[in-house]
């Protein structure tokens, strides 16, 4: 079977462009204001050997401000992103970034080894690498046709 591969990000971009042409660019701003922000933005991808998690967590100055845990095959990130603006909240006219306490539970797309995880934080970006379990293999199951 030869299926044409689709790029989900290209499809999202196309949808965004088409909706903007019909509804106007302000539509996305209005939608963004209605959706609650629940924590830092996160990207997850995997290579042949590792699952990689990138999280935007600006303003941290110490490892004590962030907790990273593996619970089963879920990565848990918790902490608080400080708001460092010199004004009160009622003077902020556009608020797209997340500030405050958070707890994110992220299911891993592949089985990972609990003892082979590294985490690095630099310039507001948290990079976590979780090694994929080598022992997890695909086993073909025979089908009994009668």
From TrEMBL:
Superkingdom, natural source: Bacteria
Signal peptide (residue range): none
Ranges of residues in domain SHSP: 33-146
A family per Pfam: HSP20
InterPro entries: A-crystallin/Hsp20_dom (IPR002068), HSP20-like_chaperone (IPR008978)
Family according to the record: Belongs to the small heat shock protein (HSP20) family.
UniProt name for this protein: Hsp20/alpha crystallin family protein
Lineage: Bacteria, Bacillati, Bacillota, Bacilli, Bacillales
């Amino acid at each position: 079977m030869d299926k044409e591969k689709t790029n989900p990000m290209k499809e999202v971009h196309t949808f965004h462009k088409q909706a903007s042409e019909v509804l106007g660019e302000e539509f996305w701003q209005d939608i963004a204001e209605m959706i609650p922000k629940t924590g830092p933005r996160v990207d997850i991808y995997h290579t042949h050997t590792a699952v990689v998690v990138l999280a935007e967590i600006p303003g941290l100055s110490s490892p004590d401000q962030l907790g990273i845990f593996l619970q089963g095959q879920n990565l848990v990130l918790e902490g608080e992103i400080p708001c460092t603006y010199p004004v009160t909240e009622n003077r902020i006219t556009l608020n797209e970034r997340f500030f405050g306490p958070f707890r994110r539970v992220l299911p891993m797309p592949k089985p990972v080894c609990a003892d082979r995880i590294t985490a690095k934080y630099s310039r507001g970006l948290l990079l976590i690498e979780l090694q994929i379990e080598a022992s997890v293999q695909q086993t073909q199951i025979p089908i009994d046709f009668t």
